Structure formats: structure tokens, C-alpha cells
Amino acid sequence: MTDTKTWARVKSPWVLHFNSGACNGCDIEIVALLTPKYDVERFGVKLEPSPRHADVLLVTGCVTQQCAERLKRVYDQMPQPKFVVAIGACACSGGVFEGNYNVLGGVDKVIPVTAYIPGCPPRPEAILDGVVKLLNALNPPKPKKEPKQAKQPELPKEEAKPEVAKPEAAITQTAQQVVEEVKPIVKQ
Amino acid sequence: MSNNKIDILSIVASKLGSKVEIQPGHLSTGTIIAQNGLHRDVLKAMIDADEKTGITAITGLDLGATIGVYYHVHTSNAFVTIKAEVPKENPKIQTIVDLHPGAVFHELEVADLLGVVFEGHPTPGHFVLSENWPIGVYPLRKDVKPQEVKLVPTPASEEIKLPENERLVKIIIGPQHPALLEPEKFAVTVDGEIVTKVEPRIGYVHRGIEKATESRTYLQDVYLVERICGICNSIHAAGFVECVEKIAKTEVPERARYLRVIALELNRLHSHLLTLGHAGLEIGYETLFQYFWRDREPIMDLIELTSGNRVYSSLMTVGGVRRDIKETDIPKIKSTLKTLRGQLPFYRQIYQNEPSIKLRMVNVGVLKREDALKLSVVGPVARGSGVDIDVRKDEPYEAYGEIPFKEIVYKEGDTWARMNVRMDEVEESINIIEYAVDHLPSGPFRINTARSVPAGEAVNRVEAPRGELFYYVRSNGTDMPDRVKVRTPTFANIPSFLKTAIGESIADVPANFVSLDPCFSCTDR
Amino acid sequence: MIDFTLIFRILVFPGFTFILLFTLFCDWVERKIEARIQNRVGPMVAGPGGILQPLADFIKLLTKEDIEPRDAKKTIFKFAPLLAFTIMVFAFCFIPVDGTSVFSTTGFSGDLIIILAFATVANFLLFLAGWASCNPYGTIGSARVLTQFLGYDIPLFLIALTPAFIAGSLQIATIASDQAGKFLPFILMAPWAFVLFVITMQAELEKDPFDVPHSESELVGGLETEFTGAKLAFLHLTRDVQVVFGSALVVELFLGGPYGPVIFGPSWIWYTLWFVLKVLAVVLISEYITTVVARFRIDQVLSGNWRILLPAALLSLMLTVALVTWVYPLLV
User: Fold this and answer.
1) Does C36 touch chain A (CB under 8 A)?
2) Closest residue, chain A, to B298 (C-alpha)
3) pTM, whole model, 2 decimals?
4) Predicted-complex ipTM score
5) I need a labelling partner for B441 at 20 to 30 A (CA). Which of B87, B425, C136, C238 fits?
6) Mutate which of C199, C214, C218 to disrupt the B interface (most B C-beta within 10 Å)?
7) Options 3.40.1390.20, 1.10.260.40, 1.20.1070.10, 3.40.50.12280; which CATH number does A2-140 get?
């Protein structure tokens, strides 16, 4: 039964895209994923309009002051189990905008992040690889098939690491719950 | 039509000669120093003389004891800067919104970032700054240290205030909404299905780039301004480096000017294809979206081939470009463009004649020529309304003066016309690239320049895919700029949407909106 | 005495299980067709050729957290999606899949009216579901569902009467079998009605160019915006059953129902096969229309109904009556 559940989750990740103050570079690459050359629908990925339908939140951008609250609210609206993928250098750490007056810098300052995909912007292949890696982390019995290595050395992709969430004041009750839920799944 | 021989500076001189100081040739056509409210008279004289007069931008800058308010004004054949100064303690200046409605957003921005009070134009609340930024602290003033600013708690999430009239319903579009790829909020009040009011709240993507440029070197700034927008990135970098080159009086090698044109036109190609496809998505024509984006991918490959990167080409640098095009790459460029050209008749047929497209786009969001002039819209939006402005023709930069191409103008002024301007410009861009590749001069592609730039100021206008992009750079002799002002095309175009959406069906809002090709990361900076 | 055949027919074939699996299969076919027309591959990794993709989506939604918004009308919000699904499956049971309907009979006189009414009720339940979610987008989306199906139900009924007139019966099984026995398939006898019926069905199923209730760029998720987990799963499933049901209705009324040549063996296998193939053909047509046009605006959708489709449906009905009275008797 659990196997079926995990299978269904891995095969049907519906994603929601949230732009928290990005420059459009990453966002366009995410949209490019839907188009014929990359076609993520192959993996069952669907871009959903409403946070209520989504499993994975793709966050781009350096999190501006004004977006932070919205980001948290969108995250809270998503049903469990949910994952957050920070896409692009800005979403990972603030990127070139680190230290600007209106920028918080990094998605993990606001909500817990499950996977980081650096790059400015990451190539669509890298985003796809990151999401697939994240989902494969849910599915420990058969990760024997070596995940494809990154083609470009300048785009090293980090492993999915749910432990990274540092519960700060900003993290909500639900946010902590999901971290606890993800942990056992990954450790299995 | 306007007479192209208007000498705007002598007209101003004859009307206000003794009261203002005119410096011909400084900052493009000339600079007029107009203190004590005379800026209104100058502007009025210019508007009376030339119907195409419009406000390109208002730059506010901290000059120590005073705050400079520079009005950058374009006319049909000239580009003039009107300089005014206000004391820092009492920064009051008379508004120009009544003379030229297109200046609303510019004044709001200067008021928010520098605290200039425009008399006769109330500017309540924040315009681009976030809600938790304290009132009365102006980030672009030199004495404000952003790290020391204490943020105020955000007012508990904005409750939607219901309109007083019960027939009216307020629909909030954004900040997270499928029709907007970027977070921005539009409160649309509808009476039944008819839009009666649109209230924008921008600033969700405000990253404080203008301030950040002041603490980075010119070389770093090239990469920073490039990241204002991920779509039209090359043109931002080009606009900035040209400004710096103007101040430093650097002569760019001939080959670099052609290489820049190729990079800029590739950028325009991919941006136009992206928008043409995105419009399909907004009107529920997903197949069109998929086809356009399929054919956009080879262009992305070309950008990667010529610059080494897929999205951020990072090609521009002060004194030339960073990378040459290899002789062996030229056949690949040509064959890719040839394939795309082969696809164009099919797409043009769809955009010109497909019945369901015409149902959704013809007579939607009509912007009349007079309104287009009054609101100072730029780029395909203006050209779709019959206003023939294209910086590539009006004030040729780089190698555009040597390359033959057509300026596309449609008269209808509706969504359909705006999209078809882009459709036709795709072909023109292909022509330009092919011409530039064929006529590529030999020689070096960059020259070395000094790290620091002599004190001075420069303005620069370039034609981004979305319209005219304006840069003002002021240097103080060090290796960091004193002030960088960017006026992006979407910033100038949004007021037109606020006007055209009113009186139309709410269902037309997405199609109308996407025809501006909005880019909020540009708008907010 | 328990009738095991009946129980088997209701629960397994051609009842619940068959309908469920066939629906998921059709969903996959739809997505594949759409993807291929758009130059993509479509679902590929869940099962061979991605055939299990709809199942994976369904199971995943069942296992998701179920959120109930604070303001929602709880009872309607909870039960409307499930009830809509049940009613659609029940309506489907009257469609003769292997020559007879699920209940081993060929229905009763007038069942065409009943199942059209069921389909309307299911749509109304979907409207209620969206309304109960108390979300502005959900409310507007469901209001659009209501206006659209109320408008298009009239031409749909009128055009559905065309085959009924020719066959002289309101019983689906009779209409279907008449096309195999007494007459030609009605697509040949009344092609104009077939075209009108497919267009009306497209509007009734809220597919492009009539999918204004789902227009993402205006309404986010439409009436589904607030739904999560199992409720969303059943909303999706209801929609998919509606698509298959609509296609099946086109097959029964115009394409000769499940009847076709029986080459060897028991006839019900062949009938089922023909039924499935014909439904897939209709799905192909409808999906083709969906992909090659843009979405209309809500006012265009509504005025298109009152100004074009309704008069056309009336004309079609009059033409049919004339033909049935004066022309067809000469042919038979």
C-alpha cells in the first residue's frame, strides 16, 4: 500500500510556480520546461494554477520584503505532503542581490526548502534533474539507477536535503510538520 | 504629421530665453536648466511646439545639499533634459501631471525613493517600496544606510475593502496568479463583467538595483543591470555600457558594434517569440504557445553558441564585447535563421487571419494615437497605435544606422495590432542579423579601458524588445557610479493598460495585458 | 435469489470498474493526442507509454491532505464532488456498451431524456461544489459553469431529438440498434445534426473553445480552486467521466452505437470493441477541435449559443421532421 502511495506521488508531481522577486530568467526556464523540447509532462509534471492542487512549490527569486509574506501564505495553502524547490542562485542565497535593502535573500529565510538548484539561471535540464532527484529521494528501494550526472561542471546540483530547514521565527507550525514528515520518508 | 525640422532648443530659447540656461549638445540634444518652477513653462513650450513631446523619465538624484529632479523629454527629433533642483529640507516642486498625464508613474517613483513632494499630485503610501519600509526614509538619498533602517511591522494582511456600491465587485489579480508570471497585484473593480477601475500595486519585484549599483564597480554593474530582466538582458547591459562609454569617450571598435547588434537582435527574436507564444497561452490557445516556444529553442541555442550562455549572454562590456563570433559558427547561425524564416508565413497567417484569434484580439484594448502620445508609451505598444517611434531609427546607436530595416507601424491600436507589430518585427530582426553577419567588419572586438571613469553624466536610449529603454549614468571620477537611473519600457507602458482596460470585459484583461508584453522585474528594478 | 450476473454487470463489466478504467484510459488518450498535436510526447514514465498516468494522479490526490476552507459550506463542499461522480456513473449505466445496458436490459422507453437530465444534475452539483467553496475564483468559475450549461442544454436536447425522430423512439438502445438494422448510421442520414451535436457537446463538456469556466488566465483553477485531495480527485474524475459519457452519447446517437460486424465468437466482445473504438474516434475529433482554436470569451460563448446554435438546432429539427415525414419513407 505504501509502495503504491509512493509510486503515485513520484509519478505525479504537480508543481506550482511562485516568483518571489526574480528577474524572469528562471521563470522563463521553468515555462520552457513545459514546451516541446523539454516536455516535463513525460514525467507526469503538471503546472497547476492553484496552490491547493500542488505538491511541489518551485520558488524563484531573491524574496523581496513584499513577497515574503505572500510566499509563506502560498506555502501554507498547499496540502501535505509538500516540497519546496529553490530554483536559481537568488532563491538559494540571494545571488547578486544579496544585501540590497529590499531583499531578504534566500527562500529558506521564510519557508523550509527541500532541494536547491543553483545556477543563474539553471538550465531547464538542471531544473528537471533537480525535481526528479527530489522525487527519487522519496523512493529509496530502487535508486540503483545512477541519476544522470550534470552535464556542465559549473552547475553542480545539490542532493535533496530536507534537514537544511533551520526553524527560525519565520517558520510556521505547518512548516515544521512537513519537515518531520519528510525526514522519515527520506531516511527509510 | 509633425515636421521633422523643429529646432526645439531655439523655440524654448525664443520663448523663455533669459530665464533659463540652455546648454546645447550636453546630454543628447541639449540640457535646459530651469529653476523655480520654470520647468513647467519649458515643458509647456515644448508640448505646444511638437505633438510628439513626451516624458521619457524623471530622474531624482541626491546632489548633497539639494535634490536634483531631471525631466528627460523626447520630441519627434530631439532628446532634451530639463534640470531642476529642490532643497533637501523642503523638497517641493510643482507637478507636471496636468501637462502630460504620462508622468504619473515617474513622479510617484521619485516621491517614493527620494521623498520629493510634487505639489498638486498626491502620492500617498509606498509606490515601489514594500509595506514594511518606514515612511520618511528614502533609500536613494546618500545619507540613508539601508542596513541601519529599522523595518516597521507589516500592517496585518491587507483586507479587501469592499466597494461602497454593491453592484461593484473587486477582483484581485495577483500577486500569485497564473496569468502573471511575476508577482504584482492588480485590483480590478468590475460592474457585472465590465471593468470600471484598475488599481495597480507594483513593487513586489523591487530589489533596489539602482541603489546597489552605487556600491559596485562599473564592471560589476554591467552584470547587475543585466539581471534587471532575464528576458531582455543584453539590451540592459548595452544601455549601461554605452552610457559609460559616452562619459569616458571610448570609441568602440567597428566589429564590436556589429557583434552587439547581432546579440541584441537575437535577444529581441527570443523575446518576441516568447511573447507571441505567451499571448496564445493567455487566450487559451495552448498549441500556439507550444509551437512558438518550440521554434524559440533554436534561437536560445544560437545565443548560447555566440555568447556561451543560454539566458544571460553577459556579452557586453565597456569597450566592446567579451566574445567574438567564430567564422565556423556563421553557417549554423544562417541555417537556423533560415529555418525560422520558413516557419514565419505559417505564424503570420495565424496571427493575421485565424478566426478565434481575431475574435479575442481585434478591438480589444484599443489605444488611440492621441492617448498613446499623451501617455508616452513606447515600443510595439506605440507602434501598434500608429506612433512611429523606434530608437533604432530615430537616434541610431551601435551599427543600426548602417543596417537597412523597416519600421513596423500598425494603425489599429488594439491587441491584434500590437501582436502583429511583434510578428513582423521577428522577420525584420532576422534580416538585421543576416545583414550584420554578412557585413561583419574585421578588426578587434574589444579595447581595454580604464577601471575608473572621469566625472560626468550621460543619457542613453536604446530600443529593447518591449520598447525604448533609457539609462542615465552620473559618475564622480571613481570606479563606482554616483547614480544610475533606469527607465524600463514596461514602466512607461503600464499606464496605457490602466486606461484601455476600463470599459471592457474582465475576460479581455489577460489578452489586453499580455499585449503590452509586461515585464515587472524591469518595472520595479 | 441473488442475481450474480447482475452484480457482476453492475460492479465489474460493463459497470463501475469498466467505466472507471475506460475513463482513465480515455484521459490518457486525450493527453497523448493533445501532446502529439502540440509536438510533445505526453506522459511517458508512469506505466508503458505513460498509460498509468491518470491512475497515478488519481491515487496521489487520494492520499493528499484534505483542506477545508474556513468559510466553505462544509456539507455541500464535502459531498457534491462525490455525488456528481456517482450520478455520472449512474447515467453511464444506461448506455448500451455490449449491446445492452448495465442492467441486462435495453433500457426503457424515454431513457434518453433521463440520462440527459442526469448529466444536467451532475453539472449542477459541480456548480454547487464551486459555489460552496466560497472562493471568489471558485464562485465565478461555477457561475460560468451554470450559465454555460443552462444555455447549451437547450440546443443539446433539440439536436438529440433528431436521431430520436428518425428512429421514432426515445430509447437509446432502440436508436442505436435501428442504425444497425433498419437504417444507416445517422451520421450519414443527418450529417448536419452530427456536426451541431459535436459542437454543442464541446460546449457542454467545457472544452476549448468553450472552456471559459476553466480559463486559467482569468480564474486560476475555476471552480476547483479550493479543492484538495480526494475531493479534487473526484472532481477531476467527474469531468473525465463526463467527457467519455458525452463521446459515448455521440456514438450511440450518430455512429451506430456498439453495433458493428461480428467476425467470430460471442457478439458482446465485438460490440464492446466497436464501442471503445468509436468512442476513441469521437475523443480524437473533440480533442482535435480543442487544440486548434483559441478560447472564446464568455459573452461570445453565450451569444454564440443564442444567436447561432439555437436557431441552427431548431432548423435542424424542422429539417429532420420534414425528411422523416416525406423523404426517408421513400428510401426505406
Assistant:
1) no
2) A37
3) 0.84
4) 0.84
5) B425
6) C218
7) 3.40.50.12280
